[in-house]
Amino acid sequence: MVHLYGYREIRTPTFEETDLFVRTSGETSDIVSKQMYSFVDKGGRSVTLKPEGTAPAMRALIEHGLLSPGQVQRLYYITPIFRYERPQKGRLREAHQVGLELVGSPSPAADAEVIEVTVRFYEALGIKEISVLLNSLGRAECRARYREALLHHAEEFLRTQNTELREKIEKNPLRLLDSKDPDVKDALAGLPPVTQFLEEDSKRRFDELQALLTESAVKFTPAPDIVRGLDYYTETVFEVQSAGLGSQNALCGGGRYDDLIAELGGSPTPSVGVAMGIERALMVAEDEGRCAAEPRLDAFVVAAAPEHEEEARRIAACCRRHGIAASLDLDAHSLKSRLKQADRSGARYAVIIGDDEAASGTVSLRDLAAGRQESIPKESLIDALGART
User: Fold this and answer.
1) Which is higher by pLDDT, 165 or 366?
2) CB contact set of 22 (below 8 Å; sequence gap of 6+)
């Protein structure tokens, strides 16, 4: 579906240098401090199984010189990710993501496009009950003023916490907003939203983004408590949530990260993206009864005697060339055994070739569910199966 919007695939290694994620996600992020699978390789280098896909994609763009000034790159990836966390519904230590990266455009229209493609992705899966939560973190000035206000508001609460937590929060106070701890939520009650601290340009961008989403018929809700868990976000952040996941209801999240490429040594390049968890999406689709049926065989080709096995192989190969899924017995079993295999295979039809069929230039086509069987000319088999499967 992403091809409809002009996105091209990018593939990155399963592991990267550990420093890539420390620099981009932030030392205090849960990903770096708790969840990464890191180890020292035989060359003495610290490497990490990638816990997210954005930083590796940006690293690859820089390394391969794909960031020409004024050029916009639309990229997608499908990748495994690895995070050490307690397995639970919707959370796995090895999971998979579909990610989008729109690199090179500073326009709010780029943010709107990424959010629209995300929503259309879930709609294409048949997931209807989703909500888009939208926020803006502003630029450096906004975040500096908001961090100060946040620390002041939570000062009494932080005095009762341990030194490790206080130091972590002082490095990045926005992490308090990402906490699910009820005590933290109580401590932040009455805190002004970050949108009250936005620079004038950021306010205009946020208003324009909302207008563009409305124009695209993408429903959204402004949500000042959405901040995302990585340090590299600027301006727009968003989450897509589903009631089908219970309390852990985030299907995916993303936003803008205009400073990320520069932090990795590239030229300053505006960028926006999203990472969509495949397992979480499939879980919701399954709960809603919208998962696609598993592909099944169209035909199981049965040779009634050893002398017809070569012809059975030719028939199976011909079916596959015409897009008809076909299988057959490989081990010279009896006819009775082969017909049992056909039943167990889940195929819709058995195509039987024996002495009578070979002599008359026909095959017997058996509907395995209904038990009906008919004789058809061999040259008509592909058309007959194509019309029925």
Assistant:
1) 366
2) 32
